[in-house]
Structure formats: structure tokens, C-alpha cells
Design a protein that fits this description.
- 69% of the residues lie in helices and 10% in strands.
- The protein is mainly α.
Length: 297
């Protein structure tokens, strides 16, 4: 499982690196262009892209650190949880960006500012292209890694922001309507909020070690009890270590005349094939053994 995780992480790390370089370079371009043209809207988008670069950097650092960290006596699970912490941090960053966009948008509704629309449109189109490419790089990984999903959401949010800036520039060029800028800013912020909250909720579910949503604990327990020789199941714990890495521990009480090896093999096969739990720690106890007391925490 660890080797597979490291191969997947290496692929994600390469894609995150490419996206990070593109985002940083273009954020600098946007800042320079914003000061050269006096466009506050473009400067705001540059700040958004700068936040994206920070989120991408955290995601990349988490993947590289988790994949390379050696397992010492005090890190028996490695540093895989860093990915989840990075995903949670990305969710917080997204909420911060959304809050800023909504606040600034509402503030500017009272006094909309003039825009220099042509350079705004040109640079926004370039930012849109960068974000489309970066989103394409990360889209597949977002379905497999919560951390990559956080980075993908960062890029996707900025992509929508770039679309909004393009729209603002086009409206201003064609109609001169200054309210388009603050209205689009508020819309972008409202679009980001639910996605950031969903990502944060997923990360918190992992951090509090809740059972994965796709695993029915009652059905899992019943399946283990259905194995020949098993008379009881207790101390069942299932949690997620990091994305695509669920683990379990369980005690199986068997009849005294059962072959513990057969029971162990059958239980491991059931957990792996039915529930995708390839990493499980099982304790097999004879029915006559009375010393094991089920924990209540």
C-alpha cells in the first residue's frame, strides 16, 4: 500500500510543481500589469492567484514530506496526515479569499471605480489560460487525493475568478457599466464558499478519525460474524489515515476448535475485497479466553 501511495504521490507532485510554477509566474505578471495600468480589479485577481500559489505550495510540500518521511519509532504511520492538514489549510484559505471578495465587492458597490479595460482583458485572458491548464493537470488527482482536491479547488476558484474578470472587462468595454466589477466579485465569493466548506468538512472527518462514509460498520461487522468459526466481533475501529488509505482494527472471537489461520485469512480477504481495507490489524481470540475486555472509548 505504501509503495502504491508513493508512486501516486510522485505523479501528483510533478503535476503540482508544474501548476505552482505557472501560477507564481503569472501572479507576478498580473501584479506588474496591475501597477502599470492602475487596475484594482487586476490587482485583486493577482492577490487571489498569489493565495493559490501558497495553497499549491502547501499541497506539494505535504505530498513530498509525507512520501519521503521515514517511519521512525515515534512516527509509526509516517507523515501521511500532513496531506489532510494541508487540505484543511487550503479550505481556510479559500474561505479567506471568498470573504475578501465578498467584502470588497459590497464595499465597491457604494463607489464603483473606473477600469482600464483593455489591459485588464488581455491579462485576464492569459490568467484564464493558465488556470485552465493547471486545472486539467490536477483534475484526475482531485478524485483520489483530498490534498490534491484542495489544490484543484484553489485553481478552479481562480479560474472562475479569471472568467469573472474577463466578463467585467467585456461589459465595461461595451457599456461602461462600472457596477459589473463589484457584482462579479461578490458572485465569485459566494461560489467559492460552499466548495471550501465541503473540503474543510472532508478534512475534519478524517482528522477526527470518523469511519469513512462509504463503509457500513453494521454490514462489516455482520460479514465478519458470518465467517465460519467466528462467534463474536468486538473492538472494531475503522478510520482514514489519508486519501485512499483506510485502515481497520478488530478482535475476532472464535470457537476453541477453529483454525485461527483460516479465520484470519477469511477475515482479511473479506475486509480487502468487500470493503477495500487492505491494511487491517486483526486479533483472533479463542472463545474460552476471558481476559480481553472490549474498550468503551
Amino acid at each position: 500500500m505504501t509503495q502504491t501511495y508513493e508512486r501516486v504521490s510522485e505523479r501528483y507532485a510533478k503535476r503540482l510543481t508544474i501548476a505552482l510554477v505557472l501560477v507564481i509566474v503569472y501572479a507576478i505578471v498580473q501584479v506588474v500589469a496591475a501597477f502599470a495600468t492602475g487596475s484594482l480589479s487586476l490587482l485583486s485577481d493577482a492577490g487571489h492567484m498569489g493565495t493559490d500559489s501558497l495553497g499549491l505550495a502547501m499541497a506539494l510540500a505535504a505530498i513530498v514530506t509525507a512520501a519521503r518521511a521515514s517511519r521512525g519509532d515515534r512516527r509509526t504511520f509516517g507523515l501521511y496526515r500532513l496531506e489532510i492538514l494541508a487540505a484543511l489549510a487550503n479550505a481556510v484559505l479559500l474561505l479567506g479569499v471568498a470573504g475578501y471578495a465578498i467584502y470588497e465587492g459590497i464595499r465597491r458597490l457604494g463607489a464603483p471605480e473606473d477600469l482600464i479595460a483593455v489591459p485588464l482583458l488581455v491579462v485576464a485572458m492569459g490568467g484564464l489560460a493558465v488556470n485552465v491548464f493547471s486545472a486539467w493537470l490536477l483534475r484526475g488527482g482531485a478524485r483520489e487525493s483530498l490534498n490534491v482536491e484542495g489544490a484543484y479547488n484553489e485553481v478552479l476558484a481562480d479560474l472562475v475568478g479569471s472568467v469573472g474578470v474577463v466578463l467585467v472587462a467585456v461589459i465595461y468595454l461595451t457599456t461602461g457599466w462600472r457596477y459589473a466589477d463589484p457584482i462579479v466579485a461578490v458572485g465569485i465569493g459566494l461560489w467559492i464558499v460552499p466548495r471550501a466548506l465541503r473540503l474543510g468538512r472532508k478534512a475534519l472527518v478524517v482528522l477526527v478519525e470518523s469511519a469513512p462514509g462509504h463503509i457500513d460498520l453494521s454490514a462489516l461487522r455482520s460479514g465478519l460474524r458470518g465467517i465460519d468459526g467466528v462467534v463474536d466481533v468486538h473492538d472494531l475501529h475503522v478510520w482514514t489515515l489519508t486519501s485512499e488509505m483506510d485502515v481497520a482494527t478488530v478482535h475476532l472471537v472464535v470457537t476453541d476448535d477453529s483454525d485461527s489461520h483460516d479465520v484470519l485469512d477469511a477475515a482479511r480477504d473479506h475486509l480487502r475485497t468487500t470493503w477495500g481495507l487492505a491494511h487491517a490489524t486483526l486479533q483472533v481470540e479463542p472463545e474460552s479466553h476471558r481476559e480481553c475486555v472490549e474498550e468503551t472509548w
